[in-house]
Known about the structure:
Elements: H1 3-7, E1 9-10, E2 13-14, H2 18-42, H3 54-80, H4 85-109, H5 119-132, H6 140-160, H7 170-173, H8 190-210, H9 212-216, H10 224-231, H11 233-254
Helix pairs in contact: 2-3, 2-10, 2-11, 3-5, 3-8, 4-5, 5-8, 6-8
Amino acid sequence: MSAPQQRKLLNGQPLRFEVVDALRGVAIVWMTLFHFCFDLNQFGYIKQNFYADPFWTYQRATIVSLFVFCAGVGQAIAVYQGQTSQRFWRRWAQVAGCALLVSAGSYWMYPQSFIYFGVLHGIAVMLIIVRFSSGFGPWLWPLGALAIAMPLIAGRAHIYWPAADFLNEKAFNWLGLISRKPVTEDYVPLLPWLGAMWWGMAAGQFWLRRSASWLKMSIPRAITPAAWLGRWSLSWYMLHQPLMIGVLMGLAAIR
């Protein structure tokens, strides 16, 4: 390992950046509250339209954007610290494996609208692309902007080129170049969300090269629980819904 890489490690382990962990933790808390409200709606405690009401759809888009952006920053840190390909693929396998579990669990609960390309599926694909494009440097900013704009461009293309309707089929709609949303409980296609992860990578590289002290600063004690959650984001993501749904099912049985 080179001397610069050694300075980026502490006792052979990657340094933790509490600011990034806390930001990811904020996304976790927000997501948990969102999902709890969704579950309350499913069990009839409240009556909301989570699929069309802007109050809920905008929150969902913001939460996903924050998650994906943090994943991009995390990849910038991993590359900066000299993360090995073995370690990358081991973490990637965890994400991909959890994505398959989400598909299986959602199929059991919602067979007509199960999750076949949700946030973990999207992140698994995006991680590979972002990892191998980490050397693009400042070009990640315009690439991210293009990725975000592509669904809008595709929407116009569908109007003037009816043959593009094949992009709405399941085999291709994971790309995000659609004219109508698929029926699924969670849908995070490659585009536009790849743009958010590219921007996360670009922002992380910028901060690490020019103002790394901002990333390395200590956080207030009051938000250290958020940083803890951020360090265990994948585990929390996989466990929080089964726990909340289990509690609500138990309450329903008692009621």
